[in-house]
Design a protein that fits this description.
Layout: E1 4-8, H1 12-24, E2 28-32, H2 35-45, E3 49-53, H3 61-71, E4 76-80, H4 85-93, E5 98-101, H5 106-121, E6 129-132, E7 137-140, E8 145-148, E9 151-152, H6 157-168, H7 176-184, H8 195-206, E10 216-219, E11 223-226
Parallel strand pairs: 1-2, 1-3, 3-4, 4-5
Antiparallel strand pairs: 6-7, 7-8, 8-9, 10-11
Length: about 230
């Protein structure tokens, strides 16, 4: 089936440009310049990916992303004029899977969209529920579900990708470069460190104390690893 992308951008010229390039790449595209309308569209059409401008005239893009995530765990690429490193990190901490600043290359945007869609369509974990650490962590790739200490945890697509990548070989250290390539499918210069923001968000959800992580461990100067071992 053709993947559907919802483009939310208030500048008509940019919205039409993005739409044209995505459609040329074989994607079905819905578009709007309104944050409120975007929330309605996401609820009624369940798109596969959201391309979202942060500066919208009615509802801030950050609020749009948060509201949509309440009912649809859709991957999100933020498209914005906010170009500072802090703005980019803030966007990633809000759960964005990628961040493109204006002015941008339409071809690069299409590549990033395609990489996110490939990642979302491909589970990297082993099939069926797999338990780690005497049941402390359970990953169910078939249902794309995660339980921590018996409680269901909702992860963004990027957080899911990081966790199941680490769980593929528990104890093995994965560098930031490896993780971002496994999760996104490719890497652009300057984006390797953004994996830290996603790990930080993941730890808030799975650790008892994110300041003293027991599940996703940092190996200084090397990367990250899953500290728990598989049960059985």
């Amino acid at each position: 089936m053709m993947a559907t992308v919802l483009v939310v951008e208030d500048e008509e010229r940019i919205r039409d440009l993005v739409r044209s390039y995505l459609e040329r790449a074989g994607l079905e595209v819905l578009s709007t310049g309104s944050g409120a309308h975007a929330i309605e569209l996401a609820r009624s059409t369940t798109p596969d990916l959201l391309v979202l401008d942060l500066r919208l005239p009615d509802v801030p893009g950050e609020v749009v992303a948060s509201e949509i995530r309440r009912f649809l765990p859709v991957p999100t690429l933020m498209l914005t004029a906010k170009s500072s490193e802090q703005d980019r990190i803030r966007g990633l901490e809000l759960g964005a899977d990628d961040y493109v600043t204006k002015p941008f290359s339409p071809r690069e945007l299409v590549l990033r969209v395609e990489a996110i869609l490939r990642r979302s369509a491909h589970d990297v974990a082993r099939p069926g529920p797999v338990s780690y650490g005497d049941g402390e962590l359970v990953i169910d790739a078939d249902r794309r579900g995660v339980q921590v200490r018996g409680e269901t945890v909702e992860l963004t697509p990027t957080e899911w990708g990081i966790l199941v990548s680490l769980a593929r070989v528990p104890g093995r250290v994965y560098s930031r470069y490896e993780l971002i390539n496994k999760v996104r499918g490719f890497e652009f210069e300057g984006y390797e460190r953004t994996i830290d923001s996603h790990v930080k968000n993941l730890r808030r959800k799975v650790e008892r104390d994110s300041r003293q992580p027991q599940i996703v461990e940092t190996v200084l100067g090397a990367g990250y690893r899953l500290r728990l071992t598989p049960d059985g």
